Each structure stands twice: as C-alpha cells, then as structure tokens.
Amino acid sequence: MTQVVDLLGYDRIEALASALAFAPKRARFIFVRHGETEGNRTKRYQLPHTPLNEIGEAQAAEAAKSLAAMKIGKLVASPMARAWRTANVIAGTQGMIPEADGALSERFYVSLWGKPIEGPFDWNWDPDGCEPLATFVDRTARGVARILADDSSAGDTVIVAHGGTLLVTCALTGTHLDAAHRRNAVPLRFERRDGAWSATPIG
C-alpha cells in the first residue's frame, strides 16, 4: 500500500510555519505529491535521484489525466528525480515544461540516505548530519510563499513536490488532510474563501 505522509511531529512544523509571513496573491493552487518509489514502499530515507517505481509511474499518469482538462499556467516542481518525473508526466498533457525550484526539495536526511526508517517517523527528530527541521520548514515555506506570490500567469499554478513539502503547505494554509489525501500522487486543490483555506482532492 502506498505510504501515507506521517504526522508525528507535525505540531512542530505548524509552530515553525506560523512564525513566517504568508500572504499569497493566488487564492487557489494545486499540489501534487510525487508518485510512489521503492523507498516509499520499503520505507527508506530516499536519495535525491530515487526514481518512481512502476506503480508510481501509473500514479503520475493518473494524476496527469485528472489535471488534463485544466488550464495550467505555471508548473513548478522539486528537482529531486521522483517529483521531477511526476511533474514531467503532468506537463506532457499540457504541452509545457515544468520549472525546477530547489526550495521545494524534500528534507535532506543526508546521513541516513538509503537506510531503513525504523519505528515511527517523527518530523521533529533532528538526526546528526541531516537538515534541521527549522531549516527545512523555513526554506520550504519561503519557496511556497514566493511561488504563490506570483499571479502573473493565467490558469492554475501547480506545485509538484514531496510529503514534507505538503505538510509545510498545510501548516501555512491551516488545512488538514485525511490520510487518503496524504498518499502519493493525489492532486489537491487548495482554495481560499472568506479568508480560510481548504484542500480537496481532484479526480
């Protein structure tokens, strides 16, 4: 079964994100987590070049199908292979090329790359040799805020990234997702109405 993004330590992500300015010009955007990888399936800390597996390729194609009828004006993705591939599958149905933004990269668990995730996954754990949570939230939140501050393009803005990026985005917008919507390659429409954000699946 495709891995659900864990929430242990999410309260710390919320606290860190709440200290940052978030005033997007766009009142609507779409977020897509990358398709499944073997690292997701076997629960390992993933290297940047980890590709999609066969299931992940099918999930990316399904996400692209769900978004095919929409007018996408801007498609921004993490340059990590799993997200970049997912973004390119989506872009293929739109006749466009995605933009790479390193701020959307997943948290860098450098000293743990390739190793199994043992026990409950806790975002608030800061292991030696890895990107501190505070650093991750700061650069991710600033990246998402910068992308959504740009309202120059017509059509929807689509962000393709990772589970950690999704949690930071939820913390910024004050939205909460069911477990089913924290799985791989579920397109989510974030909308702001009367000052409050909501997130709903597409397709």
Notes on the protein architecture:
- With 203 residues, the protein is α/β, with parallel strands linked by helices.
- It has a single domain, classed as Rossmann fold.
- It is 33% helix and 16% strand.
- The protein has six helices and six strands.
- It has helices at residues 10-18, 38-42, 54-67, 81-92, 133-148, 163-173, and strands at 28-33, 72-77, 99-100, 156-161, 188-193, 196-201.
- It has a six-stranded mixed beta sheet with strand order 3-2-4-1-5-6.
- β5 (188-193) and β6 form a beta hairpin.
- α1 (10-18) packs across α6.
- It is globular, with a radius of gyration of 16 Å.
- The model has no long low-confidence stretch (mean pLDDT 96).
Q: In brief, what are we looking at here?
A:
With 203 residues, this protein is an alpha/beta fold. Helix content is 33%, strand content 16%. It starts with 9 loop residues before the first helix and ends with a strand.
